Structures are given as structure tokens and as C-alpha cells.
Amino acid sequence: IYFENRFIGTSFIEPTTFDDSLSISLGKDEQINIERKQIKDFESKNIFRNKVRERVKYEIKIRNTKNQPLSIIVEDQIPVSTNDEIKITTINLSNGEINQDSGVIQWRLNLLTEETKILTLEYEIEYPKGKKIAFKQAYYNLYLHYFTPYVGTSA
Fold this sequence. Notes:
Layout: E1 2-3, E2 6-7, E3 32-38, E4 44-48, E5 51-64, E6 70-77, E7 87-92, E8 97-98, E9 104-111, E10 116-128, E11 143-146
Antiparallel strand pairs: 1-2, 3-5, 4-5, 5-10, 6-9, 6-11, 7-10, 8-9
């Protein structure tokens, strides 16, 4: 396997197991910097009408340090409730598209050379007072899908 004119390893691909496209992970691209941090100033817990509301906010910063523009998909996830007493409400997804069943959010981004974009992921969890909740996100890391370089059109 070659990536950006560099040999990065070998692999076997079974040609009968795919249709017209195939996703292959090439590992971390050192020229795309991504950082996710929880914003503590916006973390809050309120009790209102026998309900507890917890608000959580993350900031995701993506920087393209390549010498060419690129098109990527960034994925993250919010919790999904399977209990009717527990409600998850999205507050801010920075125009990301959410799959309501899985809680996975996708952002399709075009980044110019040396461009940085900041995404916000903010949601609220509401549950009955006196109960404790536990949730586990399936995505412990951000997933980044890299595509061929983005080519802008001239006006």
C-alpha cells in the first residue's frame, strides 16, 4: 500500500467481498491535527420539576497542515437513551448531521491549506431526580475519513 507516494505497508484484499467501493484505514495522518476537549465552563447540572438536567459541551478543532486542500468527514457521537425517562436533547451540532438511532454525528468539511475549523458538540441529558445514570459512548476517539483533495470551483 502506498499513500502520498510513500510505502506504508502490505495487505491482502479479497476482491469478491466488496461491490464498487472499499474503505481502507491508513492510520493517523500526521498532517491533519484534531483535538477534542470538554468545555468545563458549559458543564452544568440543574434540578427542575423533579428532573435533573445535565448539559455537556465539547469543542473539536481540526487543522489542515498539508500543502493542499482536503475534503474530510469527521464523526463523533452523543449518548442515545433506551429509557423513556431519560431524554437526550441536542443543543448545538455545528450543522453536523445526526443519526437519531445511533447518535453518530457527521460533519463534511472542506479545509484549505493551513485552515482550522472549530466544531461544537453540545447536548443535554434529562432524567428523574434521585436516579443515577451511566452512559458509555461507542466512539472513544474521533473518526476521520479522508478523501481526495478538495478542488474548489472558480466563480
